[in-house]
Each structure stands twice: as structure tokens, then as C-alpha cells.
Write a structure and sequence with these properties.
The radius of gyration is 33 Å and the shape is elongated. 48% of the residues lie in helices and 12% in strands. Helix 2 (165-182) packs across helix 3 (190-197), helix 4 (214-279) runs antiparallel to helix 8 (355-375) and helix 7 (331-351) runs antiparallel to helix 8 (355-375). It has helices spanning 128-141, 165-182, 190-197, 214-279, 288-302, 305-322, 331-351, 355-375, and strands at 20-22, 32-34, 54-55, 78-79, 90-98, 101-110, 115-121, 145-153.
Length: 379
């Protein structure tokens, strides 16, 4: 039973199965939350920040939240590291016994702007009700990505990968019996036996449609999703580390730009004064007031302090997202912030007219492009 929930509040009634996550942040009191959405009705769920990403599988253990959602019978947690980032790319596999056969579920996910779930069965049709339950469960666990789910039977050791000599003998004897009964002269050869074995499987050799229920399929799906999330979290941690390094490099470049931009107005004023002195005829002095006015206009046009403030703010927010402190599924926010950082860098580059700063802007754009490519993989 999770800490922070009184015993009297538990086991009020049976709960419908759902995907759940146990919050591991200090002060969260072990509260469970559905998918990545915190429970809105419990104070222990609201506003909790997770320090670690914790994975799960479906089933009721505590039913204190049954008024608005419910946990499932068995919770398995896996700590995925300090960062909450997850990649959209991953693979998971689960196996469950269905009738006399073993069902294998393979879940693959690739990058996508939204969530697209595709489910198909190999050599059998999946009942629509079971498919709906699977899609609902996957949507409760995943936020973005193209998710492909394949259901198939587990191949036996004597299946296509092996050679079952006894089965070949039985088929040959059966075909010979039929040949003699029909009075055929040509004996049965191995090619005929192989063609018979490669033909459609007899009734009962595959999973029957009535055996494929949500209760029978769910254990394999749980295992496959847990494996998928583990792989996505592992890759997400690697992405977060790489993006953190690139963000640090980008911060250093912006700091150099800020330092160089402080000297830009004085250099521009000096160049303006030199150009005016070269243009004016000899003996005509420069008007100090007019020169000061032109220098003020030039300094205002070259001022990039606002862009630098916005740029630092965006980078700070981006750093919080990469650390997993502000959002559990930050992919879209990271995309937006990277776009905003790029916009501010472009504005900054168009304002300054300094070769050194222009070089730093080009380096910043190159580093940001690498950051943008990595951000496309974040859920």
C-alpha cells in the first residue's frame, strides 16, 4: 500500500485496470498517478515534482483513488535515472500463455509529432474489443511517437527453425496410405511431403479468436510496454546528457556575444567620427551635439540587451526541461524553446555589425542546429 494513504481508504472497491506511475519525489508520499497525469483530487498528487522517472506495469494494489481513476493489481517500478526525458524510439517484447499457445507482443516506437498507434496480428485477427483496450492502455502510457504493435504466436523449437523428423515420417506414412487407398502408382516423395507441411496449418494449430481476450493479452502488453519504456528512458538519459553539453556550449557562446556587444557602441561611434572627419572639408569642425545625437541613435540600433535577456531566459527554461524538473513529457516544449532561441539568435545577428560577433553567432547557430536535431527524438 502506498505511503500517505490510510488503510481505511484502501480496497474500497475493485478498480478497472490502468497504467500507473509511483511518484518518487521527496514529499510526494509514494502517490500513484495515471499515465503521466497527476491525480487532481488528491493533495499529495498536486504540484509534486519528480526527481526520478519511475516506470510501472498495470494492476490494483490500492484503491484510494477509485472515485476518479484506479490503480492495478501489480505495480513494478524501474528507476530510469535522474532525468525525466524519454526518447520516442524504443522496442519492447512481452510473452503470455493464451490457451495452449504462447502469445508474443512486440511494441516498436519511432519519432512522430503526435501519437499514432497501429496494432496487427500475424496469422490471426484480433477482436475489435481487445484492440480498443490495447489502444486505450497504450495512450495512457505514451504521449508521442508512431507505435507499432505486433501480436504473434511464439515459434516452437521444432518449428520453421528446426527439422521435426517424426512429423515428416507421420506425414509421409499418412500420404502413402492415401495413395494406396486411391490406387495411385507414383510413390510419395519428399517434395510432396514438404509441400504438405508448408500448406495451411490444421485447425487448432493457431490461436483461436475466442481465446484472445483483454485479460489474456494484458500480461504480455504490460511486459512489452515496461521493456519499451525502459529502453526509451535509457536513450532519453543519453540524449539529455548530450543536449546538456550542447546547451552549455551555447551558453558560453552567448556570454561571449554579450561581452563583445558591450564594446560595439563605442567602436561604432569611433568609426562614425573617423568617417565624418574624412568626409568633411578641411577647417569645418564636427558639431559635438549632432555627433552625440547620431551616436545615441546608432547605439540604440545596435543594442541587443533585450535579445540577450530573452535568450538567457529561454536557455534557463530549456535547462530545467532537460533536467526533468518542470515537465514529464517535455518534447513539445523543448521544440518550442529551441525555435525561440533560434529566433533570438537570428535577431541578434541581424542587429550587430561586428565581424567577431558575427562569427560567434554562426557558431551559436551551428550548435543550436545540433540541439534541434536531438530535440526531435524527445517524447
Amino acid at each position: 500500500m502506498p505511503r500517505g494513504i490510510p488503510a481505511s481508504a484502501c480496497n474500497r472497491r475493485k478498480a478497472s485496470p490502468s497504467f500507473w506511475i509511483r511518484d518518487s519525489a521527496p514529499g510526494s508520499r509514494g502517490c500513484l498517478s495515471l499515465g503521466r497525469l497527476r491525480c487532481p483530487a488528491r493533495p499529495c498528487c498536486r504540484g509534486a515534482k519528480r526527481a526520478r522517472c519511475v516506470l510501472f506495469t498495470l494492476t490494483p494494489s490500492c484503491h484510494a483513488h477509485t472515485d476518479h481513476h484506479a490503480p492495478s493489481p501489480r505495480i513494478r517500478e524501474e528507476v530510469c535515472g535522474m532525468s525525466g526525458l524519454r526518447s520516442m524510439t524504443g522496442f519492447g517484447r512481452g510473452v503470455a500463455k493464451v490457451g495452449a499457445r504462447r502469445l508474443v507482443i512486440e511494441v516498436r516506437s519511432l519519432n512522430a509529432r503526435g501519437l499514432d498507434v497501429k496494432i496487427r496480428g500475424r496469422d490471426f485477427d484480433l477482436p475489435p474489443a481487445v484492440e480498443i483496450e490495447m489502444v486505450t492502455a497504450l495512450r495512457a502510457s505514451l504521449v508521442r511517437g508512431t507505435v507499432s504493435v505486433l501480436l504473434r504466436e511464439e515459434e516452437s523449437e521444432s518449428g520453421p527453425a528446426g527439422l521435426d523428423a517424426s512429423a515428416i515420417r507421420r506425414v509421409h506414412e499418412a500420404l502413402e496410405t492415401v495413395r494406396r487407398d486411391l490406387g495411385l502408382l507414383q510413390p510419395v516423395d519428399l517434395a510432396t511431403v514438404a509441400a504438405f507441411l508448408a500448406g495451411p496449418a490444421p485447425a487448432g494449430a493457431h490461436l483461436r479468436r475466442e481465446e484472445l481476450t483483454w485479460e489474456s493479452v494484458r500480461p504480455a502488453l504490460e511486459q512489452a510496454v515496461a521493456d519499451l519504456q525502459t529502453m526509451r528512458a535509457r536513450e532519453g538519459a543519453a540524449l539529455a546528457e548530450d543536449m546538456g553539453r550542447r546547451l552549455g556550449r551555447l551558453r558560453a557562446l552567448v556570454a561571449e556575444i554579450a561581452e563583445a556587444s558591450e564594446r560595439t557602441p563605442s567602436r561604432a561611434a569611433r568609426k562614425l567620427e573617423e568617417r565624418l572627419a574624412a568626409i568633411l572639408p578641411d577647417g569645418i569642425p564636427l558639431d559635438p551635439e549632432r555627433l552625440a545625437q547620431e551616436v545615441a541613435f546608432l547605439a540604440e540600433r545596435l543594442d541587443v540587451s533585450e535579445e540577450l535577456v530573452r535568450l538567457r531566459t529561454h536557455m534557463d527554461h530549456l535547462g530545467e526541461l532537460l533536467a526533468g524538473r518542470t515537465s514529464e513529457t517535455p518534447g513539445r516544449k523543448i521544440d518550442f524553446l529551441v525555435q525561440e532561441v533560434g529566433r533570438e539568435i537570428n535577431t541578434l545577428g541581424s542587429k550587430v555589425q561586428d565581424a567577431a560577433i558575427s562569427s560567434l553567432v554562426i557558431e551559436s547557430k551551428a550548435e543550436l542546429e545540433k540541439l534541434r536535431e536531438q530535440a526531435q527524438n524527445i517524447e
